[in-house]
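Question (not urgent): is this output format expected?
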Amino acid sequence: MLPTPIELFGLSPVPDSGIDIFIKRDDLTGSELTGNKIRKLEFILYDAISNGHDTLITCGGTGSNHCRATAALAARAGLECELILKGKRPSIPDGNLLLDTLYGARLNFISERKYESSIHTILSDRADRLAAKGRKPYIIPEGASNPLGVWGYFLAGIEMKRQLDKASIKADTVVCAVGSGGTYAGLYLASLYLNWPVRLIGFAVNRDCLYFTKQIINLADSFVDRYNLRLKPSISDIEIDDAYIGPGYAKIGGREASFIKGVARNDGIVLDPAYTAKAMFGLFDYMIKGKIEPKAKVVFIHTGGLPSVFPYRKYFHK
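Got this back:
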C-alpha cells in the first residue's frame, strides 16, 4: 500500500557518530506483491493490457523478486506468464520460485553463462515463438528496468521527499541496492527534478560498478528524452559500489548470514539475502570507515524480498 512508511532505524554500528538511519519500508507495498518491483510493474502492466497483450515474458535469478511479482500480477490480470530463470531447476521449489509455481508461471531455466551473454536474444526468440502461435507476448526486461518502469521510482522519490519534508527530516544521503538499475535511476531523476542535493549511494549486488554506471545513465537519458523532461543527468553524479557482492549474486556466506540475523533479532527487520542485506552491510561498513559524514541523515530503501529468505534456511536454522 502506498505511500509506504519511513521509520527510524534503531541499529547503528557507530552509535556515537550522530548519524540517524531512517528506513523507507518498500517491503510493505502489498502482500503477494510486496517489495519495490510493483512500483515499476504497475506502469508496465497497464501498457501491456491497454495494448492487448496476453502473455508477460521476463527474466531473473531462480529466486527473483521481480519474477515473483510479475507472475502474481499476471495471475491477477488473467494473463499468461513465462519466466526465463538463471540457474538450475531445483528438485523442490522454495521461496519466490515456489510462488512462481503457485501463480502458474511457465518456468524456463538456463545457465548463468548463457543468461549473461544472450538473455535479450533469448527473450526475443521466445516472444517470436509465442507470436507464431497466435499469442501477443510482452517482454519485460530484468527488474522492469526500462524508461517506463523508471516512473515507479521517480514517483517514489517524490513521495519520499514529501514524507521527509512533512516530518522535518533533512536527509542528505539515500542508500539502495542495485540489481538492474531502475530503482537507482528513478531516485536519481527524482532528485534532479526536485533540485534535491542528496547523495545517492547504490550498492551493486551482481555486476560491477562500471556496468551499472553506464546502465543507470542510459536509463536516465532515455527517460528524459522519451518524456521530454528538462533534466540533465550526469554520469559524474552516479555513485555505485560493487565491493559488497560477497560470494556472488544471490549467494551469501557466514558474514552475510550473521548480519541478517543480527538485524532481525535487534530491530525486527528481515533483509533479503540477495539485495538489501548486502546494501545495508555496505552502509554499515561505510559508517565504520567514516565514508558517511558525522550527523548525517540517511534513508535506506528497504526494497523487500522476504520470500527469498527461506531457501537460505540452512544459514539461519542453528
